[in-house]
Design brief:
323 residues; TIM Barrel; eight-stranded parallel sheet; 14 helices
């Protein structure tokens, strides 16, 4: 397919970004995606043992990723993390070329990053957030719908309605995220006004992802209704349905306050228990609503190449319909 502004901005062949899936966005996965022509992403806490140092872990991940690929890759930096200043310092020291910021105000660090030659993309969940991100100089926005796994916007707008409204409101390039697992999602996103896609859940089932085998198996077995949004009072996020998710929803329905729910959750290392340790009852697995579309475990590079190849078939079918 022809280069989009996202492809040109990031120096990649296919306008596809791997989601920065926190604990699961490790070096091997990022390198595999980048080597196949997309943009791999690492997260500072990927693969970390409990209570480890994110700053040192990020240095390790950067070194390891550079051993595995010479292609462009980026890092995921949630702005509300407690050690964000130290992580930004490492980012600049290590001359990282692409940063995806999220969960915070783009005014905080965008100018600093860009003044040091970093390309900045910011995750947004509304038109208002996208406009603010553009005002403060980000190079592109990632419009994340509520179909996405992990943390989502409070208004729970779907990708289908979010992307075109943002496209009407900003001039910078848009990446669509949420509900995208294959070439159909890529083509649909571009039709809506995006110039690239971010894909997370599909890559969890790749061999390069460090998710526990039970997590991958659960995603492969999932149907269209096997994810749910929890913790709306704290910060909504989409997860695979399990006992913990059901308990959280019951607490919310029973009128528990945000502080009461937070107190219960503070004693549980939820994502680590679920995603790394494979505890599918008491742990948490961030997972997009497209889980029911994932049929198999294949290499991350093969996922990227399949999307690139199949997109031609999707476009050809559309041409046949409209010609």
């Amino acid at each position: 397919m022809k280069k989009t502004r996202i492809s040109q901005l990031l120096g990649i062949d296919l306008p596809l970004i791997q989601g920065g899936m926190s604990l699961l966005a490790g070096a091997e996965l990022a390198a595999a995606v980048s080597n196949a022509g997309g943009l791999g992403i690492i997260s500072p806490d990927a693969g970390m043992a409990a209570h480890s140092d994110k700053v040192q872990n990020l240095r390790h991940l950067l070194a390891r990723t550079r051993e595995l690929t010479s292609k462009p890759f980026g890092i995921n930096l949630p702005l509300r993390t407690s050690d964000i200043n130290e992580l930004i310092e490492v980012t600049l020291q290590e001359k990282v070329s692409v940063v995806i910021t999220s969960m915070g105000d783009p005014a905080s660090y965008t100018y600093l990053l860009k003044d040091n030659g970093v390309t900045v993309l910011h995750v947004v969940a509304s038109v208002k957030q996208a406009v603010r991100a553009e005002v403060f100089g980000v190079d592109a926005v990632i419009a994340e719908g509520c179909e996405a796994g992990g943390h989502i916007g409070h208004d729970e707008l779907t990708t289908f309605v979010l992307v075109p409204q943002i496209a009407d409101a900003v001039k910078i390039p848009i990446v669509a995220a949420g509900g995208i697992a294959d070439a159909r999602g890529l083509v649909a996103a571009i039709a809506l006004g995006a110039e690239g896609v971010q894909i997370g859940t599909r890559f969890i089932t790749s061999p390069e992802c460090i998710a526990h085998a039970r997590v991958k198996e659960a995603i492969l077995k999932a149907s269209d209704t096997d994810t749910v949004i929890t913790c709306r009072k704290l910060g909504p996020h989409r997860v695979l349905k399990n006992e913990l998710a059901a308990r959280l929803i019951e607490m919310e329905s029973a009128g528990y306050s945000a502080n009461e729910i937070a107190t219960v959750l503070a004693s549980i290392n939820r994502p680590r228990q679920g995603e790394i340790e494979g505890n599918l009852a008491d742990g948490e697995v961030y997972c997009g609503a497209i889980a029911g579309m994932i049929p198999n475990i294949i290499k991350a590079g093969d996922i990227v190449e399949s999307i690139a190849y199949s997109s031609r078939e999707v476009i050809a079918r559309l041409n046949n319909i409209w010609s």
